[in-house]
Amino acid sequence: MSEQYIYPVKPEIARHAHITEALYQADYQRSINDPEGFWAEQAQRFLHWRAPWHTVLDYDYPSAYIKWFQGGRLNVSENCLDRHLADKGDQLAIIWEGDDPNQQRRVTYKQLHAEVCRFANALKAQGVGKGDHVCIYLPMIPEAAVAMLACTRIGAVHSVVFAGFSAEALKDRILDANCHYLICSDEGFRGGKTIPIKATVDKAAEQCPGLSKIIVVQRSGNPVNWQPGRDMWYHELLAIADTESEPEAMDAEDPLFILYTSGSTGKPKGVQHTTGGYLLYAAMTHKYIFDYQPGEIYWCTADVGWITGHSYVLYGPLCNGATTLMFEGVPTYPAADRCWQIVDKYQVNIFYTAPTAIRALMAQGDDFVASSDRSSLRILGSVGEPINSEAWEWYYHVVGQTRCPIVDTWWQTETGGILITPLPGATELKPGSATRPFFGAKPEILDAQGQVLTGVAEGVLTLSFPWPGQARTVYGDHQRFIDTYFKAYPGYYFTGDGARRDEDGYFWITGRVDDVINVSGHRLGTAEIESALDLHEHVAESAVVGYPHDIKGQGIYAYVTLIVGTVPSEELKRELIAHVRAEIGAIAAPDRIQFAQALPKTRSGKIMRRILRKVAANELDTLGDTTTLADPAVVDDIIANRLNR
Ligand code: WTA
Predict the structure, then answer these.
(1) How far apart are CA 307 and CA 250, in angstroms?
(2) Is 321 helix (H, G, I), strand (E, B) or coil?
(3) How far is it, in rounded angstroms, from Cα 461 to Cα 447?
(4) Domain contains 625
(5) What's the domain range around 600?
(6) Can you tell me which atom of ligand 1 is nearest the CA of 522?
(7) Which residues contact ligand 1 via a Cβ below 6 A?
(8) Tens digit of pLDDT for each residue in 297-343?
(9) CATH number, domain containing residue 571
(10) ipTM field
(11) Is the peptide bond before 334 cis (omega within 30 degrees of 0)?
(12) Residue 183 lies inside a defined structural domain of this protein
């Protein structure tokens, strides 16, 4: 890594870029020296306010009290739609490309506005009001955007659940967020397959007595079960809905949405974001980090079920009046050239995806890329996990033909938007480094004792000052919010990631330092997968760790001890995998299951995950000290039967 090649800023990009190096330096300093002045200015520039704020920022990290733009009033859908109508009404807001390459839809700002207004009225007619919680379980179709924006129009709080989650996982999220309303589709399409959606909702709903209304978008048209009184068709509600809808003037700190994400322990947390700060941060980061220029076609491949879909498929781009592309399918269907076919078809200028997709496409060979033109591409982005330099170089040279800067963007569900990233017209690139902080972000590297490390250093990544996009709480459990993010290092927001800062002040994210793993860019808690396994009748105990995986970044390795008398078999492994799919979803299915006689534990009974991680990675010479184990022989059995050699 010492002979690191640095990719200079491209003059042709810098010439027209929103942010150049001189501007970055000046504005970054200003954002740190006078954060309130800086953010007040941005809030004026990026958003339309119904009423001005009286206090830019009020915060106290020890109690996790964070308030931005208090007193200010605004509406998210008005910012994303109404204010663009005058000069961009006929411009495309959403380009939708179906799983089937022959299906597409083009939605202008005028059309999107009209449908959002009508659906907002439809929701109201069903009793949904300001502050109500609405669960959205939809595939990647324009109606997902309509549903989210309609909620924001009337001040309802959405909780989008990724449509790949199982009925069980959906049920947990409906109950935790106390949702009385749900929006779904009949079915979905992905990679040529039909995905049940309503059937999954029906199953979840059996255990959600509070769920009183289910609105169903017709996507496949295939028959679905129907419960009259509870279930209703989206298109039927729209047909009778009024077209005039006055946006609700929300307080800047009113909740905007809840989004579940995994942590080290316990069930997924409902991370809550609020209205003003979140929207400002999503819009500003989108414009500057992707250097979005008027008229450009922007494509982020994330699903709206994740934070990347919220901030960078929907809210950021629409707030900026951009054209955002929504893709229903997968990068390898019908073939591994699908992304580049779409880029050519719509002349996409900015393309934002995850390293796991880049690695998967890289593995298919360059021919799938070479068969397309891609000359429309100007900026490439990466998100969700560390990008290895090999994948970075391939993305840069093969996909981008050395013409497009790559923005490797580091952030989290809890941060609302990107915090560490290059800026296309300002930042010299080092493959694998997320480079430097965005405006207002104050990353600090701490050692295990919480001492701030300066200069070249490696430790845990924290942020020492709030930014507007920061999450405000964990829904229903503020104490958990405090404990997870603000307790370990008093005065700092703890990210759960490790990082290194090099001699140029560039940040290199080294991965999670807790029990969260990142599988194909999806964030999972090992504890969640263990709880799912432990529910199985033949499982006595389990321990799940991540291990290096060429395509997925990390794979899921489960050590399982069986109830006495159970015969281990390949059949049982398959059954356990199916069981985890049913409990959580396909994304959590273990890649490897090793049956073990026992799990290595300390004398006090704690599972020694460090050892299990090393064995899973086949790093046997660095196992470390095993003398503190209650029974060191357990490790010999585990090593002898390991699956990764
Ligand atoms: C990881 C996704 C390295 C990190 C936006 C973080 C990254 C977690 C990067 C959040 C990156 C995200 N380089 N690691 N550019 N971006 N991560 O909440 O471990 O799904 O803590 O948000 O993904 O995942 P989440």
Answers:
(1) 22
(2) coil
(3) 9
(4) yes
(5) 520-641
(6) 20
(7) 261, 306-308, 383-386, 408-413, 434, 495-497, 509, 512, 518, 523
(8) 999 999 999 999 999 999 999 999 999 999 999 999 999 999 999 99
(9) 3.30.300.30
(10) 0.99
(11) yes
(12) no
